[in-house]
Structure formats: structure tokens, C-alpha cells
Amino acid sequence: MAGALVLAGCGSEVVATATRSDQLGGAPAPTDPAVTDPGDVDPPSGGPADTEPPSTDPVDTEPPATDPVDSDPPPATDAPPSPPQQDPDPAAIDFGADKPGRGYDEFLLATATDLDEWWAEQYPLVYGKEYTPLQGKIYAAYPSRPGQLPGCGAPQTTYDEVSQFVAFYCGDGDFIIYDDGPDSLLTRLAQSFGPSTIGIVLAHEYGHAIQQRIGALNQRLDTITTEQQADCVAGAWAGRAFRGESPYVRFSDDDVRSGLIAMLEVRDPVGFDQSDPGGHGSGFDRVNAFQVGFLEGPARCAELIENPLPLVPNQFRTFEDQRAGGNAPLSFGDEGLLTFLPEDLNLYWAVELDAEVPGFDGLVVEANSSLSEVACDDLRGDFDNGAALCAVTDTVHINLPVATELHAQSQTFGDYSVGYLLGYAWAEAVQVAVGSGLEGEERQLMNDCLTGAWSKSVTPGRTGLPEPRAEGREASISPGDLDEAIRLLIRVGDSGADDDDLGTPFEKIDAFRTGVLGGLDACNL
Predict the structure, then answer these.
(1) Which of 62, 93, 289, 395 has its CA 20 to 30 A from that of 311?
(2) DSSP string over 296-322
(3) Model pTM score
């Protein structure tokens, strides 16, 4: 965050479910942005024997951290889901003779079986041609399986090569390999967030297999284009599992939440240009593609090769912002975000509300250490979660201990999580000012959208500052800030769709990205 011109279809019997996931990951951003995908190379080139590695997502080598802001969240497990009532195809995955058993093996068999049947149904509908199943197989790779994995442009693939890339699809042989080692990122993700994360990885790699069938991998497209579509495909399959359309796999609200986390865990490093070779997208980019697929299905994903989704800036524009890691100090004063963000919010809403609410005077911020310090007869919002609006005094009360802890976690939440809390409080004040009749969850999701609209106004374009705006507005978000907002929404959202208080993480992120991508008009206030 910066404070100067540039600062920093039918319900079927469910036979397998993924386990609950309650922790929010905090792994650092991926550190190797240079890996390529089959979207960059013409099959059969690419693979461990070539200078460019096989299709994969760049991933982090450190295990995901738990969310220290939450108090003792119940851990997820990779234990097997409830016993299946129908057996998936036992040959859907080549586990090899010596594979150590994993609690999620049966779930992955169900996932692979479902993906193949789903595409046999969807491919003719989307592309007008008969679907060809994988000519190769899906292989589990682990240290004790030497010499048993097919090569991608080479006679064999070693486990060490697989472990660098976690999972990949190879057009030369039409197969998928995933890392099933005891310390692999996939294993750790399953342990932390449930096996749904690995199911989503397989769905993503199936997206690349579909690209091979439609000839997209022969077009030398930018990596970001093929990766974006594969993320969309993963989201479309997750939506199928969530809506009960799969006869093999069912996703809960927690599994969908895990899918969102998985998209964040494999984002491009902050500062990396997504359009460069090997680019996969920021966390916001990847979640955006996932949600588009989830909500609109594989036919919409098919459109993304010719008409990709917009990308948000992910590069630092000044050395000062890069040196600060994109984080402004949590303080009052000219460069403190508790001063320049309220000033910007007041300027933004004064212009946007002038025609409808002349004389909107704006709000002030007060930092408090506990709710006992807040005297207000009309307190709106959840102070314990970070901030609340006193509508009678036009004051936003920020919970300083919570804000301080969020701000300190620069790899996960950072300064824009605090900025989101402020923007959300301003959004509630806007609804009060215009006499909004929305209540409950609908009102809270409108606040998410309005916060996204304001975020759009401080989001730089690909080559410069945000669009021309009111005099005096100098705030500008930094790379990774929108990812921080998404992490916050995952943290504070309702635990399930049956809770209609704030909206689920998926619903809140969807409302937020509506504002970020479409601006205030898209919110339909």
C-alpha cells in the first residue's frame, strides 16, 4: 500500500467427500517464477531432458504456515473420507507397486474417475467433438519409485525432477504425474487443508490435457493464458463437486475454501510480471479464474484462450516500494496508512456521493485497544474482527491489537488487510448515507463490493498510476495487496452457506472482485 504518488446438472449419489479444512495457509510466495508450462512449448518438446521443464505450477518449498491470528483452529487431516458407496475406477491412477499408502488415495481415485467421465460429457458440448481419454496415465511419484515414471521428452522422469514441479501434464505421452512424496507440497496441503486441494491440482492438469486436444498448446501462447484457463477448469470442476453434480466427489464449504487457499499458495511471487514466460498470475488473478469457472462452467473457460481475463498489476514501480515490501507503516502521520487511507477514502466517496448525498463530510479514524474504549450508541460492524463504524459520530474505530497483528504478517495479510477493514467501514457509512435498505448478508456483501470499487480506484494500470481522479488523491496499492485482501476475506467469512451473517469466503471474494473489476457501477448500490 502506498501513500505518496508511488508508495509502496442433477444431484447424484455422493460416494466420496473431502475432509474439513480450517487453517489458513501462510507460505511465502513461490520463489522460482521461471518454470514453464506446456502452454509455452510445442509437444513433444519440454520435459526434464530439455532446457525447459514440463508443465507445472511454480510452487513454494516451505510448508504452509498456520494462521497465528486465529486461536487454535482445529486441524484438518488427510484421513480417508467416509467409505464410498460405489467404487471408483481402480486403474484411474497408476500408484505403482511400492507406494506408501496415503489417507487421500481413495479420494484421488474418485477424483480422477470423475474428471474423466466429466470431460467425456462436457467436451462434446463445449468443443463439438468426441473426447479422447488420456492415452497415458496419471502417475503417483515418490522416492521409492525409480525408473517407473515415463519421460517427457526423455526416456524417464526421475522423482527429483517431479519434486521440483509438484505436478505436471506432458503432451508427449498424454499423461499426468504428481508428487506423492511424504514431504511434497501436495501432501502438506492435504494435511493442512484436506485432500480437496490435490483434487483441484488434478483438475488443473486435466485443463492442460484439454488444451492439448484443442491444439492450444501448439499456438505458443503466453504461459499465463494457458494457466488461467486451467485454473478456470479447476474451478468449474470444483463447482460441479460442490453442487452435487458428481457421482463420486462432493465438496463442502470448507473444501471450496481450501480451493481458494490453494490458488493463493501457488501464486506468482510479488513483483513478478505475470506476462513473462512462466507467469501463472497473482493470487487475485488465480482466484478470479477459479471463481469464473466455478460460477460459469467449462464453456466459459473455453473462451479464455481467445479472450483472457484481465490481470492486476504485480510489479513494483519504485525501488522504495520494493524495499518496503509494499507495506506502509501502521501509524498516523503523512506516510502512515491510518492517515493517508482515510484521506483517500474521504476524497473518493465525496466525489462518488456528491450527486446523491451532497455534503458528505467523511469519517475519522480512532485507534482503540479494546471495545471498552469505544463509546457509541450505533456501532456497526465487528470490532473484534478489526474495525467498526460509529454511525452517530462518523468515526471508524480500529482494533489496534488486531490491526497490528495483521499488519505484521507481511507474507499473508500485511497492510492492505488493514486497508480493507477501513474500506469496509467506509462502505457501511456509504450505505447509511444513501439510505440503503439492504440487510444481513446482502448488506455485508455490498460492503465487500464497495470496498472493491474503491480498491479499483487505487489500483495502478499496467503502465502507470490509477486512472485520473480527484485532486489530492495520491494513494496507490502495491503488488500483493489484493491478495492480502482475499486472505482476510477467507479468514473472516462465514463458516458455511447456512450462516447468513457476512457471507462465505467464496461469496465475499466474489463480491470484492466484482467491485475491483467492474467499479462502483458493477455493485448496483
Answers:
(1) 62
(2) H-HHHHHTTTTSPPP----S-SSHHHH
(3) 0.83
